[in-house]
Amino acid sequence: MSHISEIQDVLALKTGRLVVMITKPTAEIKVGDPILLERPDGRLHQTRVLGFETLLSVKGQLTSLFINFEDSVTKAMMPVGTRLSRLDDSEHRVDACHNARRD
User: How many independent structural domains does the chain possess?
Assistant: First the structure.
């Protein structure tokens, strides 16, 4: 599992889709990657990356990254401070239920 970043904000678009804002990622991610969301209270949720939007500085450097996840992920599942990690194919998958916790 590769830690990517922490959620800085969650935005609800007019379409109903949610996007999360993170700071510069510490690991490579791509569309379709399985992601583990670890909330500050320890609850775990699994999802996949559907797309990205970037916010660049005047100098062209990445300042923020916005990630779209699957529709099954709700705003309540992703409070500010939630850790994002990319799951590797060989790792155990976590059920996307509210009561899953890291042991």
Answer: 1
